[in-house]
Amino acid sequence: MAHVIITGGSSGIGAALAEACAARGDAVSLIARSQSPLDDARARLNALFGKSGGRFHAEAADVGEAAAIAAAIGRCEAALGPCETLICSAGIVAPGRFEDQPADAFENQIRTNLFGTVNAVRAVYPGMLARRSGKILMIGSGAGLIGIFGYTAYCASKYAVAGFAEALRAEARPCGITVSICFPPDTETPQLVAERPMRPREAEATIGTAGLWSAPAVARAALAGLDRGRFAIYPGMQMKMLGMFGSVAMPFLRPWFDRRIAATRPTFTEKS
After folding, report:
1. d(CA 32, CA 11)
2. What residues contact residue 214 under an 8 Å CB cut-off, 6+ apart?
3. What angle do CA 248, 251, 253 make, to 5 degrees?
4. Range 149-165 burial, b when 16+ CB lie within 10 A, else e
């Protein structure tokens, strides 16, 4: 029975990953900022898998606080044993035009999405190095593959996570540690429900027709890629094409995006 620690495990993709891991017999620790959703998520895991021997733990901590997340992961390992798989799913998104977004809102997305991932990895990495084994799965985003109108902070954070994953993979692989990153498209989660009203119409014009994935479908794709030792995991053909050929296609995509954006407003200076 492997011990899987999941940040952002109380809802959305993180919760779906927790259920998928529990269903295959893993011991699962959940970490999120708020205790009440964590209690609900752990209760659901116990109801679904507790009778079959499932073991679950939960700790409230802010991934953006390095000391807090290290302490929380330490308590998870004390409860269920060394972390064999870390899944970094905690993240936030608050879209808005760059000139309208307060500095603290921009910085909070970088803090949570990038440094929250780094902090969690740093907490488990020494143990994995000592054991010369382990798996790390980072949940990126399609916004880490392409720039999106109104998502300057989120894109910056997810591009940075992708760069971190790429560099860490090179360091970790000779030590027996697998590093993977998943790039989900828009996914039906509570976070997306909260995000959509803030999404600028220009962004909706360019990405709003891409279609939605369910959180369980993303979780299945992410775990399948992790189990196969893949570095980059692309749920769906659209993400795969963007991930594999996006850099080549961008000179052609940018004018298309520009036309779609221009069509949303009569003049360049009008604001939604």
Report:
1. 9
2. 16, 187, 188
3. 95
4. bbbbbbbbbbbbbbebb
Interval 67-117: pLDDT, tens: 999 999 999 999 999 999 999 999 999 999 999 999 999 999 999 999 999
Nearest to 215 by CA among 235, 197, 198: 235
Give the dihedral sign, CA 232/222/144/35.
negative
Domain spans in the chain, listed from the N-terminal domain onward: 3-262
Catalytic option among 125, 151, 154, 159? 154
Note the CATH number of domain 3-262.
3.40.50.720
Work out the burial of residue 142: count CB atoms within 10 Å of its CB; fewer than 13 is exposed, 13-18 middle, 19 or more buried.
buried
DSSP for 120-176?
A: HHHHHHHHHHHHT-EEEEEE--GGGTS--TT-HHHHHHHHHHHHHHHHHHHHHGGGT
Q: Distances in Å between the alpha carbon of 94 and those of 113, 188, 192, 193, 249?
A: 12, 16, 10, 12, 27
154 catalytic residue (yes or no)? yes
Structure tokens at 241: 């094409």
Distance CA(165)–CA(174), nearest Å, equals: 15
Phi/psi-derived region of residue 236, left when phi > 0, alpha when psi is between -120 and 50, beta in every other case? left
The C-alpha atoms of residue 44 and residue 74 are separated, in whole angstroms, by 23
Closest CA to 84 of 136, 121, 49, 126: 136
Give exposure, 24-34, as e/b (b: 16+ Cβ within 10 Å): eebbbbbbbbe
- pLDDT tens digits for 222-234? 999 999 999 999 9
